[in-house]
Design goal:
five-stranded antiparallel beta sheet, binds ligand FHN, alpha/beta, glycosidase, FUC_metazoa-typ, GH, EC 3.2.1.51, signal
Amino acid sequence: MSNASPTGDHAWFAESRFGMFVHWGLYSLAARHEWVKNRERLTDEDYQPYFDHFDPDLHDPDEWARLAQAAGMRYLVITTKHHDGFCLWDSAHTDYKVTNTPYGKDLIAPLVKAVRDRGIRIGFYHSLLDWHHPQFPVDGHHPQRDDEEFKAANADRDMTQYTDYLHAQVRELLTGYGRIDYLFFDFSYEGRPDTWNGKGRADWRSEELLAMVRQLQPGILVNDRLDIPGDFVTPEQYQPDAPLRAADGSPVPWEVCQTLNGSWGYDRDNLDDKSPDLLIRMLVDTVAKDGNLLLNVGPTGRGLIDPRAERTFRAIGEWTRLHGRAVYGCGPSEFTAPPDCRYTQRGDRLYLHLFAWPFGHLQLPGLAGRVRYAQFLHDASEIAVQSIAEGQAPDTTRMSAPPAGTLTLRLPVRRPEV
Ligand code: FHN
């Protein structure tokens, strides 16, 4: 059962199906993972050099927007603040912000403009956790930490003051940059403040915060990580087995976020890249199950998207350029796809995605007499198939491998007469 009460404007979200997630901040300079401060148990002093040297001289927001567009991504989500508490905009509520680093300028406004100028929608990621704020519970994410030590460290910390700060910054972000389409609040599955500070559950004052968000940005889509139902559910780094449904069986909007290599922030030595083919199949699998894919990139400390990530996004773009009509605005089909295949459907257009070469004729159950012709999307050739009798399928012997990833056939079907 999924935890969502859809309120926001979902039309663009279901049409988009594919977005770019950008994790960028001081940790990008460390180039070892966005949790580097926590995992290496760095003190504020240990971490300060990344602040003192943050000057992304090669950053060009239009390059990022261009790459998102080239990949076929219809929205871009930027980390305004991650768990380390560093703010990418000129917040009036803290000195721990980009305008106090050598870079000295707001990073959010130019990116919002570059993204919007290319007709791409903008989303903000905002961490509920804050390892830098003096009132946020001391990070207790070390199982070996002694509870008594936690309680002593947190005894004089006032979560209410931190939550006031959280609300004030969200207000800044939602009033300073025009129309914002999407908001991704984030905690950490690895642990929660309610188990950290020994003072009971962390109180984000979620209902109050969400009401403010909707008042400031009517129609905005908010995820499900505020401890109360949001507009969409957020499985992370795994593909649900089927479309998500609420208790009453109604569809639940969802978005899976995936990394290119297991790290959200730039991780220089991490070579576990997912192939474009795998990522394309993840996109198709997600849409076939009525979801969106938010695919992440972690730019470098100098503001560049590294060449490996760029090559992957451009290869995906080769596929979306040819097959985009088989994912954008599509969803699951009432027909059952053959093995190693997925169906996506939009109206009377059924798209058959072949994840593996068919060894023989495909079985297309339920399609007998419903298909007038099939069309290979990657070369737009049409095979006049007068009809597909049960168990028959378009002649696949003439298939040529698409530039990347799956081959998509288009099988226009007439919906069963009601
Ligand atoms: O702890 C974060 C992590 O760094 C990353 O931001 C992901 C992205 O969804 N969210 C949390 C882990 O669930």
